[in-house]
Amino acid sequence: MTTSTLAYRSAQTASSDIAIQSNITFNCRDVNLFYGKFQALKHINLRMERKKITALIGPSGCGKSTFLRTLNRMNDLVRGCHIEGSINLNGVDIYKEMDPLVLRRNVGMVFQQPNPFPKSIYDNVAYGPRLKGITQKKVLDEIVEKSLRQAAIWDELKDRLKKSALGLSGGQQQRLCIARALAVEPSVLLMDEATSALDPISTARIEELVNTLKNKYTVIMVTHNMQQAQRIADNTAFFYMGEMVECADTHTLFNNPEKKQTIRYVSGDFG
Ligand SMILES: Nc1ncnc2c1ncn2[C@@H]1O[C@H](COP(=O)(O)OP(=O)(O)OP(=O)(O)O)[C@@H](O)[C@H]1O
Fold this sequence. Notes:
single chain; alpha/beta; Rossmann fold; 12 helices; 10 strands; 39% helix; binds adenosine-5'-triphosphate
């Protein structure tokens, strides 16, 4: 079977009845990740629910971003990195059965620093759809408007679509990056400390936006801000020294955690 046939079959399987019925988007089983000899993730077992916000918290260097990047195979780009175990997206193993390009179309990502392309606002959002082969102006116009609306920034930007994205404020740039991620119609949005470089007002707008996005998308976010996790996440997973110590609904994790390390972390004993 050729790789492309495999990718096509995987995409088909991804929307099979069984997968759609399941409320689990990502199912990670016994995931170990190594950067050379250094083991950054140890035996991670974690399920992330569909159309819910899952926050990943934990002290610096505990493996949150590494774990997030395993979900769209961004670690593949790191030399010497290897991964064991399985990560299923809608029932399909993303390392064994899915083309990384199909995966990344399904799993959008927003980073800590807003990273718009040095292009117009319109071209930033139309970039992904054009890569997918969409060329008709009318269709692109519709996608750009829909994506900017979903990212709650259409009203602010609709009269300056041809202007450079680099002229926007940090908060506007981050919402534009969210619109750019949504334009290719992913089912999952990964956010790696997406508000940590923003002021409180922009942060509040993005939190509000993420809360509305979960009607349609599964959101997985790394955050250092425990208040933020408590404000918007449905579920929270606590990472420590490469291990996923505990995952529960957010209220339980912060108010009634089971594990000693979680109790110490959420009560501010260490950070
Ligand atoms: N490309 C890499 N090569 C080698 N080691 C790496 C690489 N990226 C991360 N690491 C190491 O893996 C461990 C986990 O890093 P990671 O960035 O995932 O942690 P984190 O919890 O997201 O930290 P922070 O909250 O500070 O961003 C750290 O010890 C880090 O130094």
